[in-house]
Predict the 3D structure of the following.
Amino acid sequence: MSAPASPALAAPNYKIGNEKLIKVLPNAARKLTSLLTKQGRAEHGALRIAVVGGGCSGLQYKMDLVDGPANRDIMVLSSDVRVVIDPKSALFVSGSELDFSDDIQQGGFKVTNPNAIVTCSCGESFAA
């Protein structure tokens, strides 16, 4: 008698969001497409944005490249780039824009968040 077949891994259960949650601006889209391609994730990869406690203003962004959405995530397709956000973080980033700058001192990915009541001088953390 043969062993029973292992059950197939279930696809994650996620929601589709829109650019009212987060909008990826052209510079950020180009950089993300380049990074995802270099990692071999161009087809299904995504940028995960999370809001976590920390920083001098109380909250900060955490960004990672991932293989796609996880259970309960909200996935937004903006400028042909996938962004995934957990439901709790979505409460803090709604209406935000993601940009990228090559500036030597202030370069990198930057979130412009209309919900941020207080931001610190370094621009890395906020309070909502």
Q: What stands out?
A: The helical segments are 26-38, 87-93. The chain has a mean pLDDT of 85.
